[in-house]
């Protein structure tokens, strides 16, 4: 079975930090672009960051640029999102997504279950 198991969410005060992790299994992790999406209350899901299959960061949304860092460890089948200088606008459910990036894997997308991040005093 395919699993994307997320952890690290929780309640944090404004200005604080959290590190999200997503551990993948059941597919060839190194063949997939990994992304973090988030969905705030009353808003559509948005792409926060993605990282290429070889580990080079490729994109950050303007809203998180300079504060968030995406990384991956293909040996551990894990992608992380380090979130610093958090503010209430970062409150959202954060989702890990795997997107196939090879001939064999293209068209295969997997989503994690989501983890809640709440930034509040």
Structure description:
The chain is mostly beta strands. The chain is built from no helices and eleven strands. The strands form two sheets. Strands 2, 4, 5, 6, 9, 10 and 11 form a seven-stranded mixed sheet that branches. A four-stranded antiparallel sheet has the order 1-3-8-7, with no helix packed on it. Strand 5 and strand 6 form a beta hairpin. The protein is globular and about 45 Å long.
- Major β-sheet, in short? 7 strands, mixed
Helix-and-strand structural type = mainly beta
Helix/strand order: EEEEEEEEEEE
Give the strand tally.
Answer: 11
Q: What oligomeric state best describes the polypeptide chains here?
A: single chain
Strand content: over 45%
Work out the helix count: 0
Give the averaged pLDDT, no decimals. Answer: 96
Shape: globular
Gyration radius (Cα, Å) is 14 Å
- The residue ranges in which pLDDT falls below 50 over 5 or more consecutive positions are none
Approximate helicity band: under 10%
Distance between the termini: 39 Å
Topology:
Elements: E1 3-7, E2 10-12, E3 18-25, E4 32-39, E5 46-51, E6 57-60, E7 68-73, E8 78-83, E9 92-100, E10 109-111, E11 115-119
Parallel strand pairs: 2-11
Antiparallel strand pairs: 1-3, 3-8, 4-5, 4-9, 5-6, 7-8, 9-10, 9-11
């Amino acid at each position: 079975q395919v699993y994307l198991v997320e952890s690290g969410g929780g309640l944090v005060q404004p200005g604080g930090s959290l590190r999200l992790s997503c551990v993948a299994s059941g597919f060839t992790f190194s063949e997939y672009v990994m992304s973090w999406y988030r969905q705030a209350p009353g808003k559509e899901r948005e792409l926060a960051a993605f990282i290429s299959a070889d580990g080079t960061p490729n994109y950050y949304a303007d809203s998180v640029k300079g504060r968030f860092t995406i990384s991956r460890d293909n040996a551990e089948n894990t992608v992380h999102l380090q979130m610093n200088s958090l503010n209430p606008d970062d409150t959202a459910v954060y989702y890990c997504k795997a997107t196939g990036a090879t001939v064999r894997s293209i068209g295969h997308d997997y989503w994690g279950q989501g983890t809640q991040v709440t930034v509040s005093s």
